[in-house]
Every structure is written in C-alpha cells, then in structure tokens.
Amino acid sequence: MIGLVKRSTGSWYDVYTEDGRLLPCRTRGKLRLEGYKETNPIAVGDHVLLEIENNEGIITKILERKNHIQRQSVKKTGHAHVLAANIDQAVLIATMILPRTSTGFIDRFLVTAESYDIPQVLIFNKQDVLSESDLQAQQQLINVYEKMGVRCFKISAVQDDVGVVIELLEGKTSLIAGHSGVGKSTLLNKLSPEIKQSTADISGFSEKGTHTTTFAEMFKLNNTTFVIDTPGIKEWGLVSMTQEELSDNFPEMRALRSDCKFGYRCLHLNEPGCAVKAAIEQGSVARSRYNNYISMLLGEDNRK
Ligand SMILES: Nc1nc2c(ncn2[C@@H]2O[C@H](COP(=O)(O)OP(=O)(O)OP(=O)(O)O)[C@@H](O)[C@H]2O)c(=O)[nH]1
Ligand SMILES: [Mg+2]
Ligand SMILES: [Zn+2]
Asked: Are residues 120 and 14 part of one domain?
C-alpha cells in the first residue's frame, strides 16, 4: 500500500493511506533514500510503501521524490534538513512588522526554492497593523517581486476572508514557511475547520522568539489540495551552490547573463561589460536584490 507522510516526529509518522485512513507508522530498521545525507530520512510529503499490522503501518520504502526543499542546518554541521518533499509551490508568509521580515530572508528563501525549481508565492500578512509608511515600504517590495514574476498577496489572516488564498492553493501541495509569529498557523486554521493548529497569543510570540508550531505537518483540504504548516524559521541557511550558479537563481539576473561580456563566468561584481550592473543603474534590477545577492555570494551573514 502507498502512503503520504503527513507528519514526522523522527521516531513515528502519521501517514495518509491510499484507502483514506490516517495511520500511525514506524520504520523497520534504517531507511535511506539513495543520494541523501540529511538528518531526517523521511520527510513530510514523502510517498512511502507500507505494510499494515494491527492498525499500525510499517514503512518499508521511501519512493522517489519529485522534488524536495531543504535548508542547511544553522549549526553548520554540514547536515541539511529536508523541510518537505513533493511540493508544487513554496509560499512565504512575510510581515513588515511584528515581526519584520527582511529582504535578505525573503531573497534567501526565494533563491532556495528557485534552485529546486519550485514556484514561489509571497503573502504579506498583518495588513491590519500597518502604518502608512509600512504600507508604502511593502508596496515597493511587492513591485520588485511582481516584476520578477513572483505572485504577491496582501492579507490579514485575522480579519479577512481568505478566499484568495484558498484559490491560490487549490489543486496543489503547498509549503507554508516564514518567521515565527507571522501567522502561518492562524492562516491555515482559517482554511478548514479541520485544521486546529495552536497559535501564539499576541504577547506570546513577539520578543521571545518561541515557536508555537514545532513540527512540519501536512493537512488535506480536499483530495488534490494539501498544505504544510512549518515551524517558524529564524535564519535560512543556503544550500551549497557554486558562485556561478547563485545568480542563476535570481531570475532577473539569469535573464541578463548572456548580455554580460564574460557570460556565465561573470559574477556581476566589477567585471567589465556587466549587464546586471548596468541594469541596476537603469533601475530594472532592484538594488536590494543585488545587495542580497552580493552578501550571499561573499558568504557574509549567510544565514539571516
Ligand atoms: N494583527 C494581526 N495579528 C495576526 C495576524 N495573523 C496572525 N496574527 C497573530 O500573530 C500571532 C502569531 O500567529 P501564529 O499563527 O501562531 O504564527 P506562526 O507563523 O504559526 O508562528 P510559529 O508557529 O511560531 O512559526 C498570533 O497572536 C496571531 O493571532 C494578522 O493578520 N493580523
Ligand atoms: Mg505556527
Ligand atoms: Zn555580469
């Protein structure tokens, strides 16, 4: 029987089965997926083979992944943690305040998803608490990201009808990510009466950085629509890629690469005839994107 991993605690798993059940499962022995070295061999979203014994499943095999998204362990142990497997889109919930999401964090997230060929969406939450100047700063960001083809939405998960989000998720498996306290679980709870994730109260999350959601968990909205709530992420460690690969994961820079005099060897630093540098002067590549690119390239502050 084939199953879909809904939740993993490391020692046991909740798995949706083909015949519509939700079963607690264990593994027998050590399972490894060819070519992976991460801390968690079975991830949320994995398709697995199951044997069923006394209403409990035994996972006997992890089926090949369509894709996965992982981030480097912040402790730099060389380990990577797979956040989820087999996803159709990566949705980042961002907030201008309470807490503030930096463009560095947004860009690291987008670059990572892009490097796995996973389409990205940005949802700016907490519209109800934004001042006039927050709204302006937010609009500038949205202009930057929409121009490069990332869909952006503005919502208040506590006040709005979230129909637009439901539409965006329909028929897909979506990873929902973002800093702790941005409202991931609050939003998901609104999508279905069956989702009852804990959310922090206003005082709870703000300064202390405590995480309310501690495990990634997938929820089924209907037979073809799944969402994955994830624990808040403080820092986003970039997975390793070569210096030349990095700017290819900035779509607006990738589009200019062949116009650079040095082509694929151009790192868009101080090379002559660099089309990216020219585009920044003309305003068609955002300076914030370029600055974040440079900081990732030079490995400065690489985990923010
Ligand atoms: N004002 C306002 N508060 C919101 C909104 N969305 C969520 N909140 C509040 O923000 C706090 C944190 O929300 P959660 O849903 O727990 O945040 P989370 O992203 O799941 O956090 P972690 O599970 O720790 O990663 C709660 O007090 C929510 O009520 C919003 O649109 N506006
Ligand atoms: Mg949460
Ligand atoms: Zn260049």
From this structure: no
- 74 and 223 co-located in one domain: yes
Nearest ligand atom owner, CA of 293? 3
Alpha helix stretches (DSSP H) within the chain = 103-115, 132-147, 163-169, 184-191, 202-205, 243-246, 251-254, 275-282, 287-297
Does 238 fall in a domain? no
Q: What gap in Å lies between CA 260 and CA 269, rounded to an integer?
A: 11
Q: Closest ligand to 258 CA? A: 3
pTM of the model: 0.93
* Distance in Å, CA 267 to ligand 3 centroid: 6
Q: pLDDT tens, 29-59?
A: 777 666 666 667 899 999 999 999 888 999 9
- For the stretch 124-164, pLDDT in tens is 999 999 999 999 999 999 999 999 999 999 999 999 999 99
Both 90 and 224 in one domain: the answer is yes
How does residue 261 score in pLDDT terms, banded at 50, 70 and 90?
A: very high
Peptide bond into 272 cis (omega under 30): no
Q: Which of 199, 214, 229 to mutate to test the pocket of ligand 1 (most atoms within 8 A of CB)?
A: 199
Axis-axis angle for helices 103-115, 132-147 (nearest 10):
20
Count other C-beta atoms under 10 Å from residue 293's C-beta.
Answer: 21
Of 98, 123, 205, the residue with max ligand 1 atoms within 8 A of its CB, to mutate for a pocket test, comes to 205
Same domain, 7 and 122: no
| Placement of tokens 């109800």 in the chain | 128
CB atoms near residue 65 (< 10 Å):
18
Please tell me whether residues 173 and 87 are part of one structural domain.
yes
